[in-house]
Amino acid sequence: MAEADRDEVRKFLRRFKRIAASTPISFVDRDKTDRTLLSLGLTRSNCKDEILNLSVLDYFSGPQPDHNRSGYLWVFGKTIGATEIYIKLKIAESGSSEVPICLSFHAAEAPLTYPFKDK
Question: Coil, strand, or helix at residue 58?
């Protein structure tokens, strides 16, 4: 598992949020995500708000190469209510544009560690 420093995480989040300001976040359809949103009473719009509020402190891992497509994956975590949420993001190239993508937004299957929370 690759690990970035604070500055790299900050740069990724700024870039992701800048792109998401003008291009809607694309959500990969996954049953886990749908079940989590339903159980938390959230919509995709609420989900977007949670993603846009991520900070360096929420970082878990990345960048990791995306083995299915080009680009890199970044993983964050956030507690919503009593549920720790696993959030996997990437910025994809689409022609000459960049697209913010959320590949996962679901209850964490194991506890996440946050390298920058206590530093």
Answer: helix
Q: Summarize pLDDT for 68-96 with one digit per residue, the tens.
A: 888 899 999 999 989 999 999 999 987 78
Task: Give the model confidence (pLDDT) of 32-80 as tens digits.
Answer: 888 888 888 888 888 889 999 999 999 999 899 888 888 899 999 999 9
CA end-to-end span of the chain = 20
Tokens at 62, concatenated:
């990345």
- State the pTM of this model: 0.91
The candidate with the shortest Cα–Cα distance to 69, out of 84, 96, 90, is 90
41 DSSP assignment = T
Strand order in the sheet with 59-65: 26-27, 97-107, 83-94, 72-80, 59-65
Residue 56 CA to residue 9 CA, distance in Å, equals 6
Domains of the chain with CATH codes: 6-107 (3.30.2310.40)
